[in-house]
C-alpha cells in the first residue's frame, strides 16, 4: 500500500472534500485504513467510519476490518473542469440542446442548471421571446446576454470556479418565492437504481431545491453519463419527467426509463 503523508501541517477541510479525497485514495490504492485516514485528516476514527459508511451506502466502497475496499466499477470519476467538459461530445450536446430549446415557448419560466449542455441550450435561445430564465451558471448567463427577449435572473451565492456555478444558502433562498414551468437539469451521472447524482454536495442541494420549484424536471445529458455514479445524489430517477439524450443510451437504461413512465427523447448521434 502506498505510504500516507502524516505531516502535522493540515488544512481543515469539509466533509464533502474529505470524502472526495477518500474516494481518490480508494481509486489509487484499492483500500484504505481507518487509523491512517484519521491521522491524515486530523479527525476522529468515528468520523472516518461515518465517511466509509456513507460511501458504502452509495455503492462506492465495502467496509472491511479496520477500513474499506473499493467496489470495482462503481467508483465515481474525478470531476473535470468546465473547459474539459466543453470539449467532450460537443456535437451530441448541441443536438440535445436544440431539442430542449425547441420545447421552450413564449410565456415559459425556465431554470437552466449550470453545465455545458445547458450552456448550449442558452446559446440557442437568442431568438426566443417572452421567456424568463433563472440560472446558477455563470457561463449560461453569459450565453444569454444577447438574448433580448429573455429576462435573465441569477441565483447569486458563492462562486464555485471548477464548475463556474453559484451555490449556497443565498442561491437556494433565491428560488423559494418562484414557480417555474421547466427545469433543464444537467447531471454528472445517472443510474436507474441510485438516481441522478453530481460531484459536489452544495450543487446537489441546490439542484434538489430547483426540482422542488419546477413543474417539470427534464434531464439533459449525453449517453456517456448513464450507468455511472457520483458521490452526491440529487433525486431518484423516478422523479424525472423527461430525459433528452442521444441514441447511444444503453438499451437496458432506455427500457428501464420507459418502464418507469419517463419520456425519453433521443437525438441522432
Automatic annotation (TrEMBL):
SMART domains reported in the protein's UniProt record: DeoRC, HTH_DEOR
Keywords: DNA-binding, Transcription, Transcription regulation
Keyword Metal-binding: no
Species, as recorded: Kosakonia sacchari
Protein name: DeoR family transcriptional regulator
Keyword Methyltransferase among record annotations: no
Residue intervals of the HTH deoR-type domain: 15-70
Amino acid at each position: 500500500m502506498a505510504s500516507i503523508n502524516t505531516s502535522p501541517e493540515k488544512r481543515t477541510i469539509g466533509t464533502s472534500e474529505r470524502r472526495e479525497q477518500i474516494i481518490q485514495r480508494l481509486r489509487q490504492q484499492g483500500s484504505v485504513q481507518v487509523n491512517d485516514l484519521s491521522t491524515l485528516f486530523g479527525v476522529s476514527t468515528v468520523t472516518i467510519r461515518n465517511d466509509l459508511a456513507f460511501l458504502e451506502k452509495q455503492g462506492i466502497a465495502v467496509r472491511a476490518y479496520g477500513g474499506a475496499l473499493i467496489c470495482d466499477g462503481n467508483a465515481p470519476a474525478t470531476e473535470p473542469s468546465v473547459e474539459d467538459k466543453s470539449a467532450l461530445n460537443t456535437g451530441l450536446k448541441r443536438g440535445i440542446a436544440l431539442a430542449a430549446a425547441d420545447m421552450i415557448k413564449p410565456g415559459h419560466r425556465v431554470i437552466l442548471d449550470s453545465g455545458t449542455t445547458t450552456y448550449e441550450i442558452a446559446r440557442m435561445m437568442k431568438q426566443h421571446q417572452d421567456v424568463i430564465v433563472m440560472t446558477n451558471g455563470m457561463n449560461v448567463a453569459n450565453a444569454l446576454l444577447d438574448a433580448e427577449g429573455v429576462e435573465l435572473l441569477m441565483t447569486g451565492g458563492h462562486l464555485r470556479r471548477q464548475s463556474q456555478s453559484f451555490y449556497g444558502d443565498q442561491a437556494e433562498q433565491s428560488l423559494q418565492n418562484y414557480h417555474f414551468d421547466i427545469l433543464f437539469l444537467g447531471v454528472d451521472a445517472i443510474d436507474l437504481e441510485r438516481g441522478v447524482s453530481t460531484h459536489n454536495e452544495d450543487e446537489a442541494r441546490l439542484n434538489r431545491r430547483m426540482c422542488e420549484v419546477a413543474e417539470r424536471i427534464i434531464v439533459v445529458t449525453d449517453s456517456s453519463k448513464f450507468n455511472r455514479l457520483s458521490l452526491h445524489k440529487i433525486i431518484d430517477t423516478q422523479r424525472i419527467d423527461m430525459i433528452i439524450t442521444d441514441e447511444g443510451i444503453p438499451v437496458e437504461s432506455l427500457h428501464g426509463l420507459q418502464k418507469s413512465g419517463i419520456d425519453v427523447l433521443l437525438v441522432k448521434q
